[in-house]
Amino acid sequence: MNTIATSDDAELRRLRWRCRRGMRELDQLLSRWLDQCWAAASEAERGVFLRLLDCEDDKLWHWFLGHETPPDAAIDSLVQRIRILPP
Q1: 3-state SS string over the chain?
Q2: CB < 8 Å & 24+ apart, contacts of 39-43
Q3: What distances in angstroms separate CA 19 from CA 29, 73, 83, one per listed residue?
Q4: What CATH number labels 3-83?
Q5: Using one digit for the tens of pLDDT, what is the confidence trace for 15-25?
Q6: How many Å apart are CA 33 and CA 36, to the nearest integer?
Q7: Contacts 24+ apart (CB under 8 A), 15-23
Q8: Which of 21, 35, 62, 69 could form a cystine bridge with 26, CB 3.0-4.6 A?
Q9: How big is the CA angle at 50 (ends 16 and 68), to the nearest 5 degrees?
């Protein structure tokens, strides 16, 4: 068994769990980026995504709806990219 692949699988499972927010719309947005972009993302982009996952749900919802702008420019850029990802 390849320990690197096993480690990557475990990390993806942990991230998928962290994408579950209790609000289906947020779950879908975050999971969509994880599924479509995580594998090709740079370490910096992954770091921004991890910081995004640390944010409170109500803030995330306001950011994704466009009612507020994240104070962090990198998070704002990621939120905008996630908003336009195809389903």
Answers
A1: CCHHHHHHHHHHHHHHHHHCCCCHHHHHHHHHHHHHHHHHCCHHHHHHHHHHHCCCHHHHHHHHHCCCCCCCHHHHHHHHHHHCCCC
A2: none
A3: 9, 21, 15
A4: 1.10.150.250
A5: 999 999 989 99
A6: 5
A7: 15/53, 18/53, 19/53, 21/57, 21/60, 22/57, 23/57, 23/61
A8: 21
A9: 105
pTM of the model: 0.90
- What pLDDT shows up at residue 8? 85
User: What token pair was written down for 79?
Assistant: 């939120």
Q: How far apart are CA 48 and CA 55, in angstroms?
A: 11
